[in-house]
User: Which sequence fits this backbone?
């Protein structure tokens, strides 16, 4: 999209999104896509979604400087409701982020107020990228620090705390898990569900917000809000818990070698992001298309057929990677990731890749790190191949070169004495070694 600003491209992406009118109701579509694991009242929610415009929300705590794939599930659910004409509130928790919801295993490390405030701003910017900011049902950002900070501890305990029963709080899954662990749970994290319940009450009062969504692991926190509204206001409110997405083998989805897949390109490059989706298993890819894309039921069912009949083509994975990378990082970044994938394996020009894309691609490879360019000394290719793990010995490296199977930046190495020169470094820092068709390593001059 040359010549198109980031804001214009984002607007075009949002404008192209649609719910699938082949379903009788939005609730039917949400269930088909696997976006509903638990809810307060399915029949009432289905009617609510088909009725007049209402306000709903999801909360995101700034416990990291970026949202991740689990948050993306919520953002896409918010967007589907917005497309139906309903009004989203994106809550970034400036107060709950100072505490953090209880993890199943250990107490969180508390971040400073300054850090949390910075992360609030960053996450607010990410939330607004996935929801329309104009029109009658434009997204509205809210921060729970606005209504918790003015309250004294005594006021909070009197006005909110008195409505919570300790016995009920102890039964919440996250709390129960921690109570049964060696770590235990602090009063700080134990009180998190009270704060989240208070959020829903305040949004109900201020905006007539009647629905909260979140992950199913947050169900206890979600229902703390619906219970509080019922006790204090005598009104009903709703909650929807999305399933925790796992792979077909039962492992947690959204992790890559132990690291979360972040939405911030500085924390997870578009190339890495694209490769994550491209590498989805056949058993998982159709479910991913349902949750993470706006492809229609008919399109997804066609990809399901292709997976069954021609899995070697990986058409569903390629479409998934393209769709989600474009959604999160834009069309240019998605195309850059595709170009990098092609170029790494000799089907494109590595020198044509921009520095950011090349850096992201090389970061995924085994690497040899050299001194900065200013101190660069030519290194034999055979030595670099050993250091990178492409071969076990210099002798094996020489034989591979003699057989014509070694490349530097996709150019064949023709001499066993060939050395890597400073001039070989793309963007002054990077080179790609390849043995055969698929075995790769990166060479990086330290910055």
Assistant:
């Amino acid at each position: 999209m040359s010549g198109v600003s980031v804001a214009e491209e984002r607007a075009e992406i949002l404008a192209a999104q649609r719910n699938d009118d082949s379903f009788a109701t939005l609730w039917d579509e949400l269930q088909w896509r696997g976006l509903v694991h638990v809810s307060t009242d399915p029949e009432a929610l289905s009617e609510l979604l088909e009725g007049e415009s209402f306000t709903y929300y999801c909360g995101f705590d700034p416990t990291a400087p970026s949202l991740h794939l689990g948050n993306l599930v919520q953002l896409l659910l918010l967007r589907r409701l917005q497309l139906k004409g309903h009004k989203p509130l994106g809550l970034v928790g400036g107060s709950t982020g100072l505490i953090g919801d209880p993890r199943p295993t250990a107490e969180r490390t508390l971040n400073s107020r300054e850090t949390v405030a910075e992360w609030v701003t960053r996450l607010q910017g990410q939330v607004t990228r996935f929801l329309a900011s104009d029109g009658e049902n434009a997204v509205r950002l809210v921060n729970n620090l606005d209504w918790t900070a003015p309250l004294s501890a005594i006021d909070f305990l009197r006005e909110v705390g008195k409505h919570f029963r300790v016995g009920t709080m102890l039964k919440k899954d996250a709390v129960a898990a921690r109570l049964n662990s060696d770590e235990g749970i602090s009063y700080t994290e134990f009180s998190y569900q009270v704060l989240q319940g208070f959020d829903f009450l305040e949004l109900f009062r201020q905006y007539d917000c009647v629905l909260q969504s979140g992950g199913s692991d947050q169900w206890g926190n979600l229902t703390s809000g619906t219970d509080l509204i019922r006790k204090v206001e005598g009104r009903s409110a709703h909650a929807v818990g999305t399933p925790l997405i796992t792979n077909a083998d039962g492992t947690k989805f959204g992790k890559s070698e132990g690291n979360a897949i972040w939405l911030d390109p500085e924390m997870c490059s578009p190339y890495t992001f694209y490769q994550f989706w491209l590498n989805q298993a056949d058993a998982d890819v159709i479910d991913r298309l349902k949750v993470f894309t706006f492809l229609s039921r008919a399109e997804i069912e066609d990809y399901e057929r292709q997976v069954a009949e021609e899995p070697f083509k990986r058409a569903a994975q390629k479409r998934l990677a393209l769709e989600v990378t474009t959604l999160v990082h834009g069309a240019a970044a998605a195309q850059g990731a595709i170009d990098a994938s092609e170029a790494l394996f000799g089907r494109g020009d590595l020198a044509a890749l921009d520095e950011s894309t090349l850096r992201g691609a090389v970061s995924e490879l085994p690497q040899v790190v050299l001194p900065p360019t200013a101190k660069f000394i030519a290194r034999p290719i055979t030595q670099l191949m050993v250091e990178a793990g492409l071969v076990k010995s210099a002798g094996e490296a020489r034989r591979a070169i003699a057989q014509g199977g070694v490349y530097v930046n996709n150019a064949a190495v023709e001499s066993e004495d060939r050395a890597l020169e400073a001039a070989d470094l793309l963007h002054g820092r990077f080179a790609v070694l390849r043995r055969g068709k698929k075995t790769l390593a990166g060479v990086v001059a330290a910055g």
